[in-house]
TrEMBL record, chain A:
It comes from Drosophila virilis. Binds specifically to the 3'-terminal U-tract of U6 snRNA. One of its GO terms (cellular component) is spliceosomal complex. This is U6 snRNA-associated Sm-like protein LSm4. Residues 82-154 are annotated as: Disordered. Transmembrane segments: none annotated.
Automatic annotation (TrEMBL), chain B:
The keyword Cytoplasm applies. InterPro entries: Lsm1, LSM_dom_sf, PTHR15588, Sm, Sm_dom_euk/arc. This is U6 snRNA-associated Sm-like protein LSm1. Signal peptide: none annotated. Interacts with SLBP; interaction with SLBP occurs when histone mRNA is being rapidly degraded during the S phase. LSm subunits form a heteromer with a donut shape. One of its GO terms (biological process) is deadenylation-dependent decapping of nuclear-transcribed mRNA. It comes from Drosophila virilis (Fruit fly). The gene is Dvir\GJ21790.
Length: 154, 137
């Protein structure tokens, strides 16, 4: 879960944004983008020394001026639940895909035996599309989910 | 195995993920928390973060929760050695006490700065306070 994805997950949650100049903005996150530009609503701005306050119904903050954002603890827990749900879905999808692809392989194996060792990879021209699709499924199954799993676990 | 690793030979933070880190910000603040995520800009996500304020050989911790730190504000970060953490040569005091100590230190620094400026001014060396960045004092 990248920092900016976490920020997106925190949408509609209250947060504190401190700018590089020391001003802080407390408000609810409305939206954010990949530059970390953000929209807040129901904002209280506090001056650097903390002795002056301004209320504003909404504000936009340019990402490049931000020092850090503090978000509620539960947002990270939401991410963890999301990740678990996603990996469950992925596991189920892979189970289905795995069944299909092994069937396909079984169908192809005898044919490729008649051709050459590349037969499995390139396939007959008519079956190219299906084969390509199957390979994509295989590579997805073989590589991607475990890697993503690692990232998420980290 | 290293040859297969696309990040071999590149500086990266992935190995620090989930470790307890100390992060020093450009404004001089020290944060300590568990690194949960990083990206290509070295934006960081810290969980269970505390802000540690040092004054002399005393320190105080303020619980702060989850941080998303914009990478450009980070000076350095490093893993906390659990063993060494147990026997710090520093004394922990309460948040109120450390904030008080910090305020006094700040006032002393300002007073010193005022005297230096005055002395320089008397010698015809006017220092423009605006061009001195407080961060580097």
């Amino acid at each position: 879960m990248l920092p900016l994805s976490l920020l997106k997950t925190a949408q509609s949650h209250p947060m504190l944004v401190e700018l590089k100049n020391g001003e802080t903005y407390n408000g609810h996150l409305v939206s954010c983008d990949s530059w970390m530009n953000i929209n807040l609503r129901d904002v209280i701005c506090t001056s650097k020394d903390g002795d002056r306050f301004w209320r504003m119904p909404e504000c936009f903050i340019r990402g490049s001026t931000i020092k850090y954002l503090r978000i509620p603890d539960e947002v990270i827990d939401m991410v963890k639940e999301d990740a678990q749900a996603k990996s469950r879905n992925r596991a189920e999808m892979n189970k289905n895909r795995g069944g299909n692809s092994s069937q396909n392989q079984n169908q192809r194996a005898p044919r490729s035996g008649n051709r050459n060792s590349f037969g499995i990879r390139s396939g007959p021209s008519g079956g190219g599309l299906g084969n390509g699709g199957m390979r994509a499924g295989n590579s997805g199954q073989g590589n991607r989910p475990p890697m993503q799993g690692n990232k998420l676990r980290k | 195995m290293d040859d297969l690793n696309p990040l071999a030979g590149t500086a990266h933070l992935l190995e620090e993920v989930d470790k307890k880190l100390m992060v020093l910000l450009r404004d001089g603040r020290t944060l300590i928390g568990y690194l949960r995520s990083v990206d290509q800009f070295a934006n960081l996500v810290l969980q269970r973060t505390i802000e540690r304020i040092h004054v002399g050989n005393q320190y105080g911790d303020i619980p702060r929760g989850v941080f998303i730190i914009r990478g450009e504000n980070v000076v350095l970060l490093g893993e906390i050695d659990r063993d060494k953490e147990q026997k710090l040569p520093l004394k922990e005091i309460s948040v109120d006490e450390i904030l008080d100590a910090q305020r006094r230190e700040q006032e002393q620094r300002q007073e010193k700065h005022r005297l230096v400026s005055k002395a320089l001014k008397e010698r015809g060396l006017a220092v423009n306070a605006d061009i001195i960045n407080e961060d580097f004092c």
